[in-house]
Amino acid sequence: MMPSADLPDVLQAIQLATRSHQQQHACNAHTFEDGAGLWQLVQQHQPRHMLELGSGLGYTACLMALASPQGQVLTLEGDPEHAALARQQIAALGLQQRVQLHEGSFATVMQALQLPAGSQDLVFFDGNMPPLILVQHFHTLLAPGGLLVCANIDLNGPLGARRVRAELADAQRWQLLPPLESGLTRVARRLPALSP
Ligand SMILES: C[S@@+](CC[C@H](N)C(=O)[O-])C[C@H]1O[C@@H](n2cnc3c(N)ncnc32)[C@H](O)[C@@H]1O
Ligand SMILES: [Zn+2]
Q1: What is the mean pLDDT of residues 83-105?
Q2: Torsion (CA) 56, 28, 21, 149 in degrees, nearest 10
């Protein structure tokens, strides 16, 4: 488990609540284990428009909002119980104006939101293993220079995410930055499109 000693106490409390929920619910609300690394990354880049897939109970959405005080976070969650608990946490921190939770499957909500190309400064994927088509879509959604933080690539072993790894290794589209979570979470900067 990564240390998260630098985080505000309110965030550590949400993380503890998420761990306890995950054990009781025996569900997939595994909380992100490198909050300190994500905090540092967001603080350093101060993204204005952030998109998160996988709210859980709201820990990382609140973390990103607090680390980038001018920023807006759109966070997506498909489990109604997680969504309700995340909304409570967001409200308890008074972040409702800057953190909007959309409930539903990633595919349905992304389709409904129709976010414009180049509109996001940071995308954090923290659902189950990311599908290639989604990672390619993140490239479109990110502004040039924007950051993709992609967890759970290794969930299904080395073969499972082979094509996602190949996508992120495309040096004409992405610049890999130091990872988070001891290498489990990739961080990639979206490069500008090459001129024809
Ligand atoms: C790893 S947890 C997120 C943890 C959270 N980011 C944190 O650090 O506490 C993943 C969450 O994504 C949700 N999820 C997974 N796949 C989904 C999908 N296809 N559509 C919507 N939600 C999904 C799960 O219900 C779960 O709450
Ligand atoms: Zn749960």
Answers
A1: 98
A2: -40
